[in-house]
Amino acid sequence: MSPTSRRTALLAVPAAILLALVPSSASAYPNPGSVTGSIVVHDPTMIRTSSGQYLLYATGGGIGNRASSDRVSFSGGADAFSVRPSWWRTYSSVPEAWAPDISFHGGQYLMYYSVSSFGSQNSAIGLATSPSGRPGNWTDQGIVYTSSPSNDYNAIDPNLFVDDDGKWWLSFGSWWTGIKMVQIDPATGKQLSSDTARYSLAARPTGTKAVEAPYLVERNGYYYLFASYDTCCAGTSSTYKVKVGRATRVTGPYYDRNGVAMMNNGGTPVLESHGRYIGPGGQSVMHDADGDLIVYHYYDGQGNGAPKLGINLLNWSSGWPVAQ
Are the C-beta atoms of residues 38 and 74 closer than 8 Å to each other? Predict the structure, then answer.
C-alpha cells in the first residue's frame, strides 16, 4: 500500500476549506489555498492523525512543527526534538535538520530527515519514530544513509514509499547525478541488507544539475515521481518549480507526459511561479478526505520573499496530477 493510501483521513473536510482551495485566478497555475497563522515554512510534510488534527513538520531547528484542526489555521509548536541528536554535528555546524518526511506505518509515526549544509555532499539521512507524532515525542533511530564529496549523489530530501507488495523504498537526492532510491527493511527502517542497490530515478545530465526533493505516489497502476527543479532558497529570485513523471515500476524508468525520460531532464510541470507566488517547491503529497493534496512552500513576492505554506488539491482525471 502506498504512503498516501495509508494517510487516509477519518473526518470530512468542511465545505469552506474546499472553497478556499479553488484557484482565485485564471493563470496557468492556481494560487495556493487560503491558510493563516504560523505559515512561514520550508519543505513542509503533513499528515492527519486519527483524531483529525493536521501535523506539519518543516526544515529548520530540531525540525519545526505546525498544527491545525481545519487545514486553514496553523499554529506554531515546539520542535520535534527538544534536544538535537549529537551525531548531527558531524554533518552540520548549526546543527539543524532539513526536509522531513512524515508517515504512519506499523502503528507508529516515522520521520525521515536530512542533515547537511548548503551545497555540501557531507550529508546524512536520519530516522525518528513516535507513537503520537507530536513534538517532543520523537525517538531518534540514527543514521539511515550518507554521502560524502567522493560520491556522485547527495543524501538529502528523503521520502519513504511503501508499494502494494509491502516493500519499502527510500528516494532522496539533490543536484549532482540527481534522484536516487534504495530499498528499506520494514523491521528497522534502514537499508535492506539483502538489496544494497542504489537506483537512479531522475537527473539532468546537461546544463544545470538542479533536481531534488523527490516524492512518490501510486495511482491507477502507475508510480508518479514528483521533484523540485531549478534554484531554491533565494527568496524572490528563486526559480524553483515542481515537475512530475511516471513509471510502471517503482524503480523506473520514469517519463514525462511527452515521453521524455526523467533521467534526461524530463518532467511535466505541476507548479511554477506566477504573480506573488514565486518558486514553489519542496513538495510532499498527502491523501485527505477530499482528495490528494500537494503541500509545498513558495516565496511571497508581497512578503519580502518569505517562504510560506502552499496547499492545493490535485486532480488526476487526465492520468496526470493537475494542481487546482
Answer: yes
Q: Which of 101, 212, 218, 230 is catalytic?
A: 212
3-class secondary structure for 267-285? CEEEECCECCEEEEEEEEE
Q: Which pLDDT tens digit goes with each residue over 184-231?
A: 999 999 999 999 999 999 999 999 999 999 999 999 999 999 999 999
Active site residue 272: no
CATH assignment at residue 262: 2.115.10.20
Q: Is 300 a catalytic residue?
A: no
Residues 218-253 have pLDDT tens digits of 999 999 999 999 999 999 999 999 999 999 999 999
Identify the residue whose cell numbers are 564529496. Answer: 149
Residue 324 lies inside a defined structural domain of this protein: no
Residues sharing a CB contact under 8 Å with residue 220, sequence separation 6 or more, in sequence order: 316, 319
